[in-house]
Structure formats: C-alpha cells, structure tokens
Amino acid sequence: MKRAWPLPVLLLLCGSAGAAGLVRTGSTGAAVALLLVFLLLAAAHSPLVFPRPAGALEAERRSAADGRPVVYWRPGCTYCLRLRIRLGRDARRLHWVDIWRDPAGAAAVRAANQGDETVPTVVVAGRAHTNPDPAWVREQLTG
What we know:
2 domains; electron transfer activity; Grx-like_ET; Glutaredoxin; 4-stranded mixed β-sheet; Glutaredoxin domain-containing protein; transmembrane helix; membrane
C-alpha cells in the first residue's frame, strides 16, 4: 500500500530549496511566488483536500444504509481533484475511499475496471462508474 504524503512533502521540499536559492540571489519576490506555487501544488496533491476517507467495507456499509455514492480516489489524481472541487460542499455527503490507504478499496476498483486502478470510480447502487461527470454525481445525491 502506498502512502499519501511523500509527494506533497517532496513538493514542499523542492519549493523550499528553490525559494532559498532565489533568496540568496536577492530575488525575494520570485522566491515567495515560487514557494506559493509549490505550496498550492502540495495542498492539491495531499489528502487534506478530500473529506476524511473511510475503509471500503465501512463505506459500502454506509452507502447501503443511506444510499449515497462511494467514491474511490487517490492523492495526486487530477480527475479526483476535479471531481472534489466541482462537487464543492456536496463532496462531504459522499463516502470517500483512498485506494492507496485501503487495499480492499484498491481491489474493488481493480474489479470494476478490468484490473486497472482507474480513479475516480464512483459506485452508485452497486454499479461502478469510472470518471463520471461531476454534475451527474451531484444528481445522484438528490435522486
């Protein structure tokens, strides 16, 4: 199982090193801008942007009880980030499973996608949908 934090930490370290080099050359404004860009990249690739993930079995149990979709995702996935941002506050109403932290979630995604770990995979009423339109996902919350 892969960990979710190495990429964001690496981005912060690279941004800090680059900014330190720019400060030494006297380019303080450029250093601040570079550090800000790397900070935003690190935040976008971290698990902090997403609601607290549940395990696959717990998410499936909750989904069966309340009918809300389960979203399988992983940090660093631009399509997952797009879905999360486009859903806005509605994202908190879904059940999120980080496939890098949960082997059962990764197995569920592989089973739904012919062996590939393609995310986001959204499961609605037991049926998997790979990389669905965010507007469609929002409709599933109201229906």
